[in-house]
Amino acid sequence: MVQSYTTECKNANTSIKKVGFKVSNKSQRPVLTSDCDIRQIYKIIAKGTPQTPPKTEFNQLREYSRLYYHTIDINTDPRAKKYAQFLKQQIDDLKQKLPAIVFSGNTTRHTKQAVTEAFNGVIQSDIDFHYWNGDKDAERLKDKLKADPYILGAFISPSGYGLKIQIHTDNAADQYTATRDAFNRYLSDQYGVPFDVIDVLPISQTCYLSYDPEIYTNLTAAAFNEKYQAPQPKRTAHTATTTPPSEAKNIIESIITEVERKQIDITQNYERWYRIGLAIAHHFGEPGRVYFHDISKYYPGYRASATDNQYNSYLRAATTGAPVTIATVIKYAQEYGIKVKSTDIEVVNPDQIIKVDRYVSEATADISQAIQEHEKICIVAPTSTGKTQAFFKHILPQIEGKHIVALPYVANVKQAEQRHKCGALYGNLDFIDYSTAYQNKIIATTYDQAARLPGDTLIIDEAHNLSGQYNFRPDAIQAIEAAQRDKKRVILITATPSPMFQMDGFHVLQIEPKEKPQQRVKLRPYSDKKHAADIVYQEAQKAITANEKALVKYNHIDLLQHVAAKLRKQYPGKNIGVLYSDQDNSTNDTAQAISEGKFPFDVLLCTSVINDGVSIDKTFVHRVISVEKEHNPIPKNLVQFIARPRQDVDKIKYICYYLQAKQPNKKRRAVRITSLYQDIKDSNARRCKGINDTLQPDEDPTGGDNLSRIGNFKSQITLNRNTGLFEPSTFAAMHDAEQIYRNTLTLEAFTATIEANYPYITIEVDNQYSVDQDKDLQKEMQKDKDQDKEDQRQIYKLIKEGKQDMILEYVCKKEQTDFKVVKAIQEHQRIDRRNKNLSNEAQELHDENKSLFKRSHNTLERVSLRLCTCMRYGIKSAENIIFNDDKVIRHGKSFNDIITSIEAQILTTCSAEDLNRLSKHDQKIIFKILQIISGIKIPMTRKQIHKKILDAIGSNEPYFNDEQRTMNIVKTFFNLQRYQADKS
């Protein structure tokens, strides 16, 4: 909800605001006085003065900033990291030379107390667009703010990648924080400015003097007197939902037992340690101190005294504010493969039950009332009852405020955007796209993006992923947990709730439709994961032969792509689709399946993305097949999957669930530790090859894949201190690794769980089913994999040789190409587009530098600009000096030494034309420095060398007053001489 800010219009001109000033130690320009008012400051920023930094310094600072953000956001060359560090240092050095202003008070002491006493009513807000093209977003926002009645002034920051905004208020200094927070929310609500780009500034915050000829000022701006009070968390009365003391004791002791057996640290960082301590203090009080020590002692920096002091503070904090419950400890433990051994905890008793005929929307009034009464509420309803649609179309429009709907995958967000016409934010969006989407009352986004979006209500769909039992990405779960902290209310939506929701204080409201029609599911075991391809292929083949539509799930993209390729070749007239979460959805068929819920396929092969809300409706699916590759699958996954087709049950002719049975005598393999880092990589990468494969000593464990694709390794390995071995586990994030490998999966237990919790599902166990292994399919898949690698090698070879035009010709010669080849081509096209853009930008930069060369009177500034051009756009001489000459890098003590060696190189190789452009004074300085450096005899101290240079060129050259910089030039000049001697 966009808040309405109406205040009495008092303008700033009634009392001219006096401001304080601060001069940097490195600045030689004390240009301001204590009598300066805000009008003078704005005038200086717009026009400058002879005493302020020259425009060329701001141009140089902004050029460095432009190159810096271009490097960190676009340049993928690993060498660019050092270049970015150099640029960042240059930016910081130039900023430190600028005078600084304190807008909020007129005082010479820049402390919180002093500025508070001298508070003048001005509040500053900083918007940082720290990304490529952020300078353009800053200009756009400034243009928008010109029509705002509250803006006293707005100007571009010294770097060019930020916006400084000033308002004034009639509120007292003690209301500064509340007024500042209200204005930040105002910027977010009115203009869609993300919270993560708004700096939260204290009252004594200084502001670097900037230069902006287009500064916007309005000295008659209205006073902004709104105040924002953050919602205070209420202490929930934990009665029926509180974990019984005996149950909590069993839980914490079972976790500690596993922590001690595995000797692992589940605290990980201070925030986790803090929350674990609060949870233990809340449930056990003083007796919990022993538990806290037992969990903390495996932290490398563990100290008993510090742990005791920390627990004392937790005991005091446990009596105030919202409690942290044992559910938090369970969640963190599960991330490290610790399964809580408890039976009672699996039961969820709803606090409220609402009966409906079929759909959740029938209970809109009751749900809306419950949401108003409870700040934390969990809505539980069976799959296929229209939970998400009811919230988007019926419930959220009736609730005041801005609503952020967090969904697990981008595919879910796209589907919500198409179906419900809401705002959608995902991926890397620029400020324009962001602000446009944020104007909507309801915004769909992913778990990862939800934390950066301000709003009143956070709705988490498919909330069962938060329990940690579904092997969902830990980073996404942490992001969605962070998103809950600043929201007034949090709503969870799921069909399969976790008891941890109740322990966290959520009011559980269950929607119960009338009795559902019976669904019959065949349950078939298979013994080897190598048979999975045969099962997927044979089930798809049966559907095509019977002229029926089939939905087949298996969580392995490569395998699905290979099977789809064979089916398309065998049945050219049939539409075979593959659906997974990170594809670009460029084909019309896939886009329809995601956004509209249509099923234009004869057979759709999909990954587990289908489980979390990507619904297939408006058509009929006759066969639903799921092939699970885990040894110990979750029964709830079956319920989620078979409900994806939104149609009458009697239209589905066949539902089959394949489970991978286990060979009880197969033992785990382990890798002996040689290097901690390498063994962690090897253990983690082992899942890419298969848990039962053996790595050879010289074999690449990832098969050439990028390790960044391999997920969170912490829950994938176990360190056995007794044997000194890393022991891999396939399902550690959900279950105890030891239990997986020692126990066999019993189909009877799985069947009993389903029938006990979901009486409308009848399981038929088919133990007699056997998989007909298709050796031809296995051979074709292996042949395809080998061909994929060869195709990729050939394509990258053509790219490296500069024969991009031959790639299309090479691909066309092939009868078929795997999707990896297509990805390689797309990557080449992306690189080609980027290179063209860089070429255009290089030309623009060259033109800019050329004009600056003509206007500049500072030789070293010219050198710096040329240096930036050389390094960023790959001029050969610069590349050779920086990156390719090992001896120069070896001699240089730091990257700055290498940079200054280039400066010396450019100075010594200046062309006659360049020298003629210089003034005689500049030429004399260059030649004197080179002459002095060439004549220096060792030993001489740093100060002696520095003094000798200053005596020769005069002490009025500020660039060389810095002893460190001068010595870098001297040192690297010697290195260059040594390098040239070695080379000759």
Number of helices, where a helix is a run of at least 4 consecutive DSSP H or I residues: 36
Low-confidence stretches: 1-15, 23-34, 232-243, 342-346, 584-589, 663-745, 815-820, 852-899, 905-919, 972-984
Morphology call: globular
DSSP helix fraction = 40-55%
Largest beta-sheet details: 8 strands, parallel
**In terms of structural class, how would the helical and strand content be classed?**
alpha/beta
Strand content: 5-15%
Strand order of the largest sheet: 9-16-10-15-14-11-13-12
Total beta strand runs: 26
What is the residue-mean pLDDT, rounded to a whole number?
67
Domain tally: 6
The N- to C-terminal Cα distance equals 73 Å
Q: What is the rounded Rg?
A: 33 Å
Describe the 3D structure:
It is a single chain. The chain is α/β, with parallel strands linked by helices. It has six domains: 12-217, no CATH class; 245-345; 352-509, P-loop containing nucleotide triphosphate hydrolases (Rossmann fold), CATH 3.40.50; 519-663 and 745-765, P-loop containing nucleotide triphosphate hydrolases (Rossmann fold, 3-Layer(aba) Sandwich), CATH 3.40.50; 775-837; 856-983, no CATH class. It is 46% helix and 12% strand. The chain is built from 36 helices and 26 strands. It has an eight-stranded parallel β-sheet. A seven-stranded parallel β-sheet has the order 19-20-18-21-22-17-26, with helices on both faces. Strands 6-3-5-4-8 form a five-stranded antiparallel β-sheet, covered by helices on one side. The relative contact order is 0.06.
